[in-house]
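for the recovery benchmark. tokens below, seq after
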């Protein structure tokens, strides 16, 4: 893959060396993948659903912060 950009290569690759952890959670019967940012909050990374209405819900859009106490149950699978 070729990436054409006016940004310096350092800016493009910034943060690539940091390992990120993701967790799959059940939120109101829906499976989502989140990245924890603290002990109480996480950021939604991905919605896993076959229902198109879930993807149109702005509360479930990637990048949205959620509180972990909202989550009904944890799936202990780490990606």
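predicted aa per position
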């Amino acid at each position: 893959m070729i990436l054409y950009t006016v940004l310096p290569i350092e800016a493009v690759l910034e943060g690539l060396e940091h390992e990120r952890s993701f967790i799959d959670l059940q939120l109101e019967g829906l499976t989502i993948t989140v990245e924890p940012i603290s002990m109480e909050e996480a950021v939604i990374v991905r919605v896993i659903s076959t229902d198109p209405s879930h993807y149109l819900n702005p509360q479930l859009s990637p990048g949205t912060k959620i509180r972990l106490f909202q989550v009904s149950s944890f799936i202990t699978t780490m990606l």
